[in-house]
Amino acid sequence: AFMQAVGMVNDHEVSCYRYRQLVK
Asked: Which of 1, 24, 19 minimizes the C-alpha distance to 11?
């Protein structure tokens, strides 16, 4: 469960980063 939570957070961070790159 812990690793799954970390994976979700990591995916969220990556999504936000890619989103910011696209906006830029």
From this structure: 19
Query: How many angstroms separate the Cα of 10 from the Cα of each of 2, 3, 6, 14, 19?
Result: 12, 10, 6, 6, 14
Angle at 10 between CA 21 and CA 22, to 5 degrees: 10
pTM exceeds cut of 0.85: no
| Strand, helix or coil for residue 24 | coil
pLDDT per residue, tens digit, the chain (24 aa), is 677 877 777 676 777 677 777 777
